[in-house]
Specification:
about 70 residues; four-stranded antiparallel beta sheet; 2 helices; 6 strands
């Protein structure tokens, strides 16, 4: 959790990746679903080394993150 200056605790997922020009970029997402969608978007845009950090700070690859969510795809 991240403590905001207002004193409110917020849960945040961080998605990082390297863009086609070689710059590492970080994106903040409020939910696990938003983070998953961001990993898909970055992959479509040609980003490499996409990883997600959960609110506790555990960092994992985009594929491992997707598997950890245990969504039921029908």
């Amino acid at each position: 959790m991240v403590r905001h200056r207002s004193g409110v605790c917020r849960t945040m997922y961080k998605v990082t990746g390297t863009d086609p020009a070689g710059r590492e970029m970080t994106f903040a997402c409020g939910t696990d679903e938003q983070a998953l969608e961001k990993t898909w978007e970055l992959a479509r845009r040609g980003f490499r080394d996409i990883a997600v950090s959960d609110p506790r700070g555990k960092r994992m690859s985009a594929g491992a993150f997707e598997r950890s969510l245990d969504f039921d795809y029908e």
